[in-house]
Amino acid sequence: MRATILYGAGDVRVEDVPDPKVQEPTDAVVRVLRSCICGSDLWPYGSMPAAPQGRPMGHEFLGVVEDTGRDVAGLRRGDVVVAPFLWADNTCDFCTQGLHSSCRHGGGYGRDGVDGGQGEAVRVPQAAGTLVRLPVAEDSALLPSLLTLSDVLSTGHHCAVRAGVGPRTTVTVIGDGAVGLSAVLAARRLGAERILLMGRHTDRTDLGRDFGATDVIAERGAEGVERVRELTRGDGTHTVLECVGTLQAWETGFGAVRDGGVVSRVGVPQYAQGPIGFEMLMRNITLTGGVAPARAYIEELLPDILDGTIEPGRVFDRTVGLDEVPDGYRAMAAREALKVLVRP
Amino acid sequence: MRATILYGAGDVRVEDVPDPKVQEPTDAVVRVLRSCICGSDLWPYGSMPAAPQGRPMGHEFLGVVEDTGRDVAGLRRGDVVVAPFLWADNTCDFCTQGLHSSCRHGGGYGRDGVDGGQGEAVRVPQAAGTLVRLPVAEDSALLPSLLTLSDVLSTGHHCAVRAGVGPRTTVTVIGDGAVGLSAVLAARRLGAERILLMGRHTDRTDLGRDFGATDVIAERGAEGVERVRELTRGDGTHTVLECVGTLQAWETGFGAVRDGGVVSRVGVPQYAQGPIGFEMLMRNITLTGGVAPARAYIEELLPDILDGTIEPGRVFDRTVGLDEVPDGYRAMAAREALKVLVRP
After folding, report:
1. Are A205 and A84 found together in one domain?
2. What tens digit of pLDDT does each residue of B96-105 get?
């Protein structure tokens, strides 16, 4: 089959690789209907040292079950399924507590002999626990929105849930990428009173307004913090959803949050150390968030997509075939595209 | 009157200062029955540069109302009251949300012309909001336990509350000082399933066992983390109550906490930067805690002291008169005393 392999910064290729097959009784093989490129893929795309072996890319996909191991209950050939971006058994204590990202038998795509999602097919370990059946046909117009359950919507939702967003919550969302916009959508869905979106790409922040942002702040850093405070009687918002991953974003979040409030982050931190000293203690600020246990949220979010209440698939503004994936990376890295859908 | 003034590291003196008087209509003057020395007093005692003016010390006290301004409702001369370690109006939006430490009209003792608590009397601003009447006599045997409402018990309780401690929670408490032991007591009171106390002063950890610690860990750093993991099937505890304030304590907490768990801290951080990068995100660890809004908890904790359910005053293992306060500092800094009660 054809699949996407990253060989180093800027060097992404679509190549022939062995067809996936069931190896463990708990595996399934899924033929990919839709995949996509993630903002987090851009970090290695921007900086990975050259590697002769390469690294299979992609962790968001939905598709059709082609084959199942003998221990895979509840799934059969022909089922349309979505895969959360981490595979998990859905039965261990972490999973039953909703933290599938720490599953005792879980893992990620594109490593340890598991295929990446940006290819024609994927061997999915722990398939019964991981894959969720979708009540749609292979040509459903909902596929893009359903694909966001795999990562970007679930991640935005996780960010909002960990922050404790609810009906009386004011929210600042930092970042107008696909995760930031999904966080806006999630915050709105959870009833947030007011949602300030920090971003400066008008096409993206316009979509953010459609998703529920009540205010858009184009300024960054200290100026951005000042704008948040102007809009909140000097106090900041109860919660900040940090969807970027830079140290500046954390610092902005810390400045924009109200005393006693929460900064929740889901962007992969591009820093090891950060300011967590005296002022954070005196202001009773909480730092939370983390990698999203997407599997935990799919049943909750799915109905709202099926009935059209939310249309998270609007974050995809470009669609490419598999052979065009390298250009998709280029376009996302150049900010020409918000999020690229892949149709193998 | 006599009061305690710190002039620099190791240089604490008891001196004559002007008697406090009502200055604002919202003030009260309280004659101090009991005060005490706080672990946080030891930081300036250990490191403050010499200052000719000196700094009034002490922020924990209970006493008798001597005089009240004309706007002080609900209090009158002769009332026995406890003062939380920050004064607050108890009516602003932060206070009504339980965050008295961020009160819009609040402040601290020993600065801005307000007396410290380690003296014969204190002018208390925002007295109606700050002071809580105690249904006891001036010579009650409960005074030491009631004094802990001012800070140390409320702070331990805040640490546990912010961590989300409840009946199914396992807890590691870092630090066997008075706050750590109070955190043990608070966690126990909130129903924690298991409480691991990290500390290596046997007399203190013995009191910790009386307060509800199920296990005591004498090892520190990586070895201490290993012991916590051995006792929790390799996972760590759901929550960590960090009651020290050093970077090492935060790192130990991070190592001892279970994936998805919470490190709550109340010790004044002796660091500006700390590790909050990739691993914290991947493990979904929350960092919370903060300076305690003691006022918010007094009504809840008071009945358990009055009926003898808890005896937090057991943290006081030495009592001194006002003139012996300097020796009290010395004894606490030398770890000869756990916490020193002052009887002016």
Report:
1. no
2. 999 999 999 9
Query: Which of B259, B277, B288 lies nearest to residue A94, judging by beta carbons?
Result: B259
Cβ distance A269 to B259 less than 8 Å, yes or no, reads no
Instruction: Search chain B and give the residue with CA nearest A234.
Output: B104
CB neighbourhood size of A93 (10 A): 12
Q: For B154-193, what is each residue's pLDDT tens digit? A: 999 999 999 999 999 999 999 999 999 999 999 999 999 9
Instruction: Say how far apart CA A177 and CA A205 lie, in whole Å.
Output: 9
Assess A168–B contact: CB distance below 8 Å, yes or no: no
Nearest to A291 among B250, B284, B288 (CB): B284
Two tokens at B324? 């012996």
**Residue from A311, A313, A301 nearest A339 by CA:** A313
Inter-chain touch A288–B287, beta carbons under 8 Å? yes
Domain of residue B159, residue span: 154-289
For residue A131, what are its two tokens? 């894959």
Do B284 and A102 lie within an 8 Å CB cutoff? yes
Contacts of B99 in chain A (CB under 8 A): 259-260, 284
Total structural domains in chain A? 2
**Residues 6+ positions from A121 with CB-CB distance below 8 Å:** A1, A19, A20, A29, A30, A31, A32, A63, A66, A115
Of B289, B315, B331, which closes a domain? B289
What proportion of chain B, given as a percentage, has pLDDT over 90?
A: 99
pLDDT digits (tens, 9 = 90+) for A8-39: 999 999 999 999 999 999 999 999 999 999 99
Which residues from A are below 8 Å from B268, CB to CB? Answer: 278, 281
ipTM of the complex, rounded to two decimals: 0.96
Burial of A113 (0-12, 13-18, 19+ CB in 10 A): exposed
B6 and B136 inside one domain: yes
Residues in chain A within 8 Å Cβ distance of B264 = none
Positive or negative: CA dihedral A100, A280, A246, A221: positive
Q: Which of B250, B248, B232 is nearest to B289 (CA)?
A: B250
Smallest Cα distance from A272 to chain B, Å = 4
